[in-house]
UniProtKB/TrEMBL annotation:
Alphabetized GO MF terms: ATP binding; CDP-diacylglycerol-glycerol-3-phosphate 3-phosphatidyltransferase activity; rRNA binding; structural constituent of ribosome
Organism annotation: Perkinsus marinus (strain ATCC 50983 / TXsc)
Similarity annotation: Belongs to the CDP-alcohol phosphatidyltransferase class-II family. Belongs to the bacterial ribosomal protein bS6 family.
Lineage: superkingdom: Eukaryota
Protein name as catalogued: CDP-diacylglycerol--glycerol-3-phosphate 3-phosphatidyltransferase
Lineage of the organism: Eukaryota, Sar, Alveolata, Perkinsozoa, Perkinsea
InterPro entries named in the record: PGS1 (IPR016270), PLipase_D/transphosphatidylase (IPR001736), Ribosomal_bS6 (IPR000529), Ribosomal_bS6_sf (IPR035980), Transl_elong_EF1B/ribsomal_bS6 (IPR014717)
UniProt-listed GO biological process terms: cardiolipin biosynthetic process; translation
Its EC number(s): 2.7.8.5
Compartments in which it is found: Mitochondrion
Amino acid sequence: MSEKDETRIFSFEIPDSAIDVYYTPEDFYEEVLALIRGAKTRCKMITLYVGTGDREREMLRALGRECNAPERTLVMDYLRGTRKDHKTGASSVSLCKKEVLHDHTGELIRNPAELKFFCSPMYKGAGRVFLRERQNEVLGVQHMKAIVADDTVLLTGANFGGSYFRDRQDRCLVLRNCPDIAEFVSSVIDAVSSASIDVGEARHGQHHDAPKSKETKRILRENFEKVFDKFKDFNGGKLLALSLLVYLNGRDGSTVGRDSPVPEPKNTKRCIVQVGIQCGYLNMHADQELLWRLLEIMGDGDGSRLVMASGYANPPPGIEGMLASRPIDVIVACPKANSFYKSGGLSQHIPDMYTTMEVDLMKRLTRGTLHEYERPYWTFHAKGIWGYRSVGSTPVGCLVGSSNYGYRARDRDLEMSFLFRTKEGSAFSGKLQKEVDNMMEYSSTVPTPSELITARNIPAWVQTFTRNDLLGMPFYRTYFLVHNEVTNHELRCLVKEMARAVTNNRGVVFSFEDLGWRNLPYFLLKQGYRRKFFYGRWFTMNFGAHPASWNAIEEIGRHNTGILRLSTEKVTPYNNMWKLRYLRTRLGSTFYKPISFYTGTTEKETNMPNEDFSI
């Protein structure tokens, strides 16, 4: 891997009774108001945006004028927060400046809440110049959603406003009197806040432009490192004294190593909570790490299964490979429950694009069942993955957070994800099951997903656009140069079995291709290499982005003596030569990123050339 993986996972143990689950937008709204108004020491909120309706105004007034906490912060995304409502012309920033920074007479509040807007480092280059409002949000956004009120934490995938308070299905978990987790989430919000634009400084009318992407990225990385260092050192320190046992390698600290198991709750009245940051441009990949741990919790029993909910189901290979390892029920929004349904312009085709993605996904998830959520006048935005150990049981684990477990979450957006581990049959497990039951109540099973394309008359150009990855969604491809003496069958068996042994089927997508001499990619020949330098055949194998996949690549290189050279490139899966040629010209030498090279020890490799075959 060209860059160091920076993923950190922190683990806490809390009482099962400390967790409340809310199932309706109305309950979600009432709980948000109650937490803000009841906060005494701190009230920190982070979200993509807030709406511009009456309920949002009441919420913002509560934060700006009614909350007595000395620490009050609201962090939103810069691009989404400055987007204007097409009907009223108002935006999140204009409403917040009015309701949070001013009193009812219009005068500036003496000690106002902090109002911050985070501009993603991905907002750069040509996209920053040419993309218009709303379109520029595809570059990347701040997508975390949470509230910290004193020692209580609200976790949700919903934004604070609009239909999320009325008729949009989402999730809401509240962790009460949990000072350890509250301190962690508060520190994360502070880290994002200090890398953001301070709208309070602009309350007299001056305009703030988006900061330079490199500077934002540097500050954010440094801030997160401070948070991680702060919690890494708490081996029985402040947080441990404040509350409950925090695990280190399953025992007595705040961090859990990648290879360590998820600790088991001591009894049915306890719950293990693990949390991490998902941020592709900082090389943090909590989604895949936590999903891997959820699979470990479930075990390999015949009855183990998954339930996944996502309004936008397009998982990248690393996550898809793990989802494919178990029977799975996938709950998605039907076109009418998609927020882009009957919208204007090109966005009206987004429901058709997701239908195409979902159909293709179910072809690859051979043990999967597709369910579409359709409730009159409601939209669907719930996101999460529930894990079961046996048929007819309640969940033993669940992923919660802002992520949709898709390409955007992996590569472009800033997310925060949580893994809850509980005991089968516990009170909290029953609450998680009720979430699934409520979604299934309004969902219908799609017996033959492939027929949806024809039934919904999806235009051919939409299918082509979606399936050819014209949005530039990357994956990793590994090339192996092998001896002529190694047969195709031997190579398949060696590589496949070794990858399985090393990764335990976590995050690997297998795709073998014998390129041979005649089909050797033109871009290799363009580099000046000639046939005399090659000694054997080229094979490819695609890997997901999970860290275990990279470990597998290294192990294969060390132990499979049939491999002479090994290199890895991050590519975009275009098939047409002109597209590859265009990308090669555009991206230059950074397009290919070799990670390591190994030479075996057998006699037939002794006289092999030592040329570097990487690009």
